[in-house]
From TrEMBL:
This is Ciliary neurotrophic factor. It comes from Neolamprologus brichardi. One of its GO terms (molecular function) is ciliary neurotrophic factor receptor binding. One of its GO terms (cellular component) is extracellular space. InterPro entries: 4_helix_cytokine-like_core, Ciliary_neurotrophic_fac_CNTF, Leukemia_IF/oncostatin. Its main location: cytoplasm. SUPFAM superfamilies: 4-helical cytokines (SSF47266). Keywords: Cytokine, Cytoplasm, Developmental protein, Differentiation, Growth factor, Neurogenesis, Secreted. Signal peptide: none annotated. Belongs to the CNTF family. CNTF is a survival factor for various neuronal cell types. Seems to prevent the degeneration of motor axons after axotomy. Gene3D superfamilies: 1.20.1250.10.
Amino acid sequence: LIGSAQFACDTERRMNGHVKNMHFQQFMETAATLLSLLLLMTVDSTKTVAASTNQQCGNLLQQTLKITRIVHKESGDLIKTYKAAQGEMSELFCKVSVNDIPDPNISGLDPPARIASIYTHLQAFLPHFKRVYKQQTDLQSPGSPLLKELTRVWDRTESLASFINTFYQSLFPNLPIPEPAGGPTTLPPAQNVFQQKVYGCVVLKTYKDFMSNVSKELRNIKSKVCTKRTPINAF
């Protein structure tokens, strides 16, 4: 009788252990299933966010490229109008070396630095446009086509700088645009009429070259940044 009771107790313990093992296995299987679902949801969410970010990047860049192409074309038209308004020797004016003109080349090793370089260059050209406009106001008649084109390109440049700034902030919200390395834009001292004509021609030609570089750079950035699968603020 005692042996039977012991056998029954042992059997009950084994059954309880088996039930506990089954419950534990079921729990682990359920936990593994939930974990797999969570991982799938995370991957899908990441893909959705990445696709949305890439679309936003592409849309902003497309708008920026559009205005860049417009400014590039108008800067080419402007230099022709400028030369036509300067009279004799106008073809030679742009070939003279002038100090303190922004470099048409874009600097930087990675996309954030190069986009920031475009922005700071645009800002650097604005005081020169103002100076050229003021000088040509004294040299041209009030209804001069040159003054109208200068105003238009000046305004477009401000708009493009705003687009570039928005584009930069959307891609790299944690990276403020650095200040220009050389500090505020330096303008040349007082100039005579000949020097003014030379200065204006060099400014506008350099700006046209810069806008050509901007067009190429933005197309290159589009392939490097807007199609990335990694977070674009990881630079």
